[in-house]
Description:
The structure holds two protein chains of two kinds. Chain A is 66% helix and 1% strand. Chain A is an all-alpha fold. Chain A has two domains: 2-67, no CATH class; 94-257, Cytochrome Bc1 Complex, Chain C, CATH 1.20.810.10. Chain A starts with 10 loop residues before the first helix and ends in an 8-residue tail after the last helix. Chain B is mostly helical. Chain B has helices at residues 6-22, 26-33, 40-53, 64-69, 75-95, 99-111, 131-135, 147-172, 197-203, 208-229, 241-263, 274-277; one strand at residues 144-146. Chain B is rod-shaped, with a radius of gyration of 45 Å. Chains A and B meet through helix 3, strand 1, helix 5, helix 6 and helix 7 of A and strand 1, helix 8, helix 9, helix 10 and helix 11 of B. Strand 1 (71-73) of chain A pairs antiparallel with strand 1 (144-146) of chain B.
Amino acid sequence: MASANGSNGSGGIGTKLRARSKKLGEQVGNSQVMNSIFRPGSIFRHGYTDSPRNRSYVVMNSVLYHLHPVKVKRHAVKVSYTLCLGGLSFFLFILLTVTGIFLMFFYRPTEALAWNNIQQLETAVWFGSMVRNMHRWGAHLMVLTVFMHMSRVFYHGAYKAPREFNWVIGVILLTLTLMLSFTGYLLPWDQLALWAVTVGTNMMGYTPVFGGQVRYALLGSKEISGDTLLRWYTLHVLLLPFIIVIFMAVHFWRVRKDGGISGPL
Amino acid sequence: MTELPEHLKKRAAERRAQLAKASGDAPEETATGATPGATTADEQPVAQEISEAAAPVAATSASSEITESKGGVPSHLLERSRKRKAALAGGDGEEVSGGGVATAVKAAPIAVPTGTGPDGHTQRLLTVVKSGSIQQTRGEAVDKVHTWPHLLVVEFAATLACSAMLLIFSALVRAPLLGLADVNQTPNPSKAPWYFLGLQELLTMFHPMVAGVTIPGMGLFLLMIAPYVDKTTSNRPEDRKFAISVFTIFLMFWAVLVIIGSFFRGPGFNFVFPWNDGIFFEL
């Protein structure tokens, strides 16, 4: 912070500067402004010391970290148990949201413009290609991590009572993840997107009794068209994220309510 | 403090007066009985006398009657306590010349009991609290650590590693962008996204309704009801051989189908070997 300018003096001036900047740093750190922004125990607050009380405050007083309990079982922090798969799935979701918002600035979901927009994004936008790559590879990776997370949970028997319902929510989350990935697949509007989605939706059209209606509802028309693009775009950027966030919230909440992550084998 | 009811105060005052009257001459007796140099043998009859004079004295050491009246304390403990006290008093008497005086001083508060209740109790019983309700431990102690820093540091490292991997991979490998979508030009083969390729592979074997709807629907349904079907409680692998086998077969089934669909299917969705005919697969 403010002490950065006092470090490279020499001799008397150097020490004086250092002392003055230290004093300034303390004044800023103790000021009403800083204390009003950072709650007690924040490591950004002046005078954070490593005490059990402050360790608790870090979690309790942070909007981000209080997803966690103040204390967790010792075995729960072992990477070899969870492989961080659930947490990484969530992190990838956040990463995909951020990169997705970036992509939305340059994309119009119409038959005439969608493919051109992607082309321009790749060639004419700073980091456009990079962010699109991250979005695509991150999406594939998220499908993979969600799937592996499910396998991990099964092999640990962590779906057993009292966590049965959280497992069901997890299966719903897996389905939603696949749907998010699949709806995003169409958006570049290239040959790969069009025909992959054709194959996929043809399969869903074989739903017994009301297969035709299912397919029409999905495509917004008899065949894949601009209507489909708009429909899947809205699903991809709004409706499905909205739903998955709700289910994720319940999922994380239930992890804590059901007694933290499952015990050691 | 809570106010004591009037009738209780009155009863206490009466009792106190009665006790004072009954043990009025006890201190004198103690004083005379406990001459300097008195031994344990001397003290015992004195104590007995006192306890007879002031019947409801609570905390005496040497009286057998009182041992009986204190129903709650096991007799062997009382016996031990009595012996210990006797030994202490005896030690005093032997080592210090004025031990007898000390015994007398010790005996004095016994002789003038203030605030003793009926039957020799020194406290009044206000309520009965069952031991279970205050001593029961409800859960086993769990070995826990603080989330900060133990868990948050691990999570932070994991997210950093994941971001770094994704960044490097994205910098090196470009996401595919084929030509503009054209409904009149069907690529050969047309493949679904990789996670649906297992289903597309099933299409080659079953009716589309079975492969595209029934089997995946059943798969999801079975996954969801798994915890309600598997009612065993153990999570040790040796107790779950059947569940683990079934799930592993389930996983392998899909993995093999996806790999075949991804790499071993060429034009016309015919079986090819990727090392002979190349890969017909885009992510």
